[in-house]
Predict the structure.
Amino acid sequence: MHHRIEDYALIGDEQTAALVGRDGSVDWLCLPRFDSGACFARLLGDEGNGHWRIAPKGARTCTRRAYRPGTLVLDTEWETDEGAVRVTDLMPQRDKAPDLVRVVEGLRGRVTVRGTLRIRFDYGSIVPWVRNSGGHRVAVAGPDSVWLRSEPAVRTWGEDFATHAEFTVAEGEKVAFVLTWHPSHEPRPALVDPYESLESSVADWRSWSDRCRYDGPHRDTVLRSLITLKALTYRPTGGVVAAPTTSLPEELGGVRNWDYRYCWLRDSTLTLGALLAAGYHEEAEAWRDWLLRAVAGDPADLQIMYGVAGERRLPEVEVPWLAGFAGSSPVRIGNDAVQQLQLDVYGEVMDSLSLGRKAGLPPQPHIWSLQVALLEWLRKNWRQPDEGLWEVRGGRRHFVHSKVMVWVAADRAVRAVERYPHLHGDLDGWRAMRDEVHREVCEKGYDPERNTFTQSYGSRELDAALLLIPYVGFLPPGDPRVVGTVDAVRAELGRDGLLHRYSTDDTAVDGLPGGEGTFLACSFWLAQALHLTGRREEARELFERLVGLTNDVGLLAEEYDPGAGRQLGNFPQAFSHIALVTTAVALFGQDGAG
């Protein structure tokens, strides 16, 4: 049987990441980058699609597990009749080649440990040729090669197209395994010392965590979210992937399974805000600079997402040999939503660059000229319908959130010229555009009978993104239309106190069958909206509940099913953790931000 999504923990080296289950099995790992083919794909299939398990012989799930405080180093412990053993998992910061390090340590008695390594390149489809070389196991297929070694050496053998090991550890004894990837046409990379890697990884992560400026309620959970965002950052470029996984379902057995191993512009403002509020200016600058490189070019060609290095071509294909998580198919690689028109991303880019300028991030000489070009394109094209924030596949509409973000784009340009005299632009024209967009949204996107803004012009449907109206400054929090919208969204999209993004009852909106879980980021937005509209006790109660939905190591997926009491969607989800951080800062203000 499959694990639940929340049964996994994350390790990574800021260029890729692995998911480790409570049974001690690494079930997902893409090498060498987040968006590369997976060599362990049991997460979306079965053991035959690749995994690496280390656990006491005969044991099923661990007794306990936890990250070492302030780090991404994971300790998993088992209590058995023979004694107790700990497995420590990490991916140290790489020099060139990625390494996965697993250290087995005896804690009590003498425990027999069993290891099974089943490499399957290209998302579980390719069985490599495995040979011995100087005491190491080497697996090669096409462009990929991995080396497995242990210190001290333990006997390994091949069986059922897998590499097995069995050994005993007594109290105080340690055995370390290192799995190293490199291009098969290159020589084996330099060996890393697994024990030194463990010490340096702990020290490096704690040094980074010590910079966290948030010191309010639930600090450990907020810090875990920030560590997760750091782990989802592609260090060479500064891009932040939405999640390290693909096709984890939004409904078990459903078809809403998408590839999230890319960088979304929709996350940009919230990511910057979270990093800056917590004191991580270097990371915010790196993300800002990734954004500038990714969106450079013709404003008409602006995409909603890019690859970790700014790649634009992310073609979507289905992988038929993987059955999907808990039978949820299809499994998809790539994301066709990259071709969509989403007008809101222009507002998000403008808002991000405005936030970076206000926060004092080092200026880049071409930022303002890029912003002017983006706004001028938007001025000519904002009246078009689009696919909206949620990447619906049911056709374009005049989504209210998209138009609100068009207003944000014009507003931030106007404010920049007013605040910084050295910046020049069509101030009168931009003000007129801002006023026209505002007027149209209030006329066509608002339902006076129900006192709420709607998902799109003329629609009766609602959208949780409407909760961002006061957050971005479109209307003040005390405006009766804002209060009415918050109440309507909570009433119509709420389930057991949490929020859906929008109603999936009408398949004409998103063009897909089935439903999905409540969306965690939207539920955090509701807490912020309640706080802004003066219902602070309700906001804090909701925040407390949402924090309680993190798994045992503090991680959140994209969605949550209140009925089944389980997480859904890609995991861990940057959007959820960003929303957790920004909501904590919003609710606890200077008490938390330091």
Q: What stands out?
A: The chain has a mean pLDDT of 95. The radius of gyration is 25 Å. The CA atoms of residues 44 and 130 lie 24 Å apart.
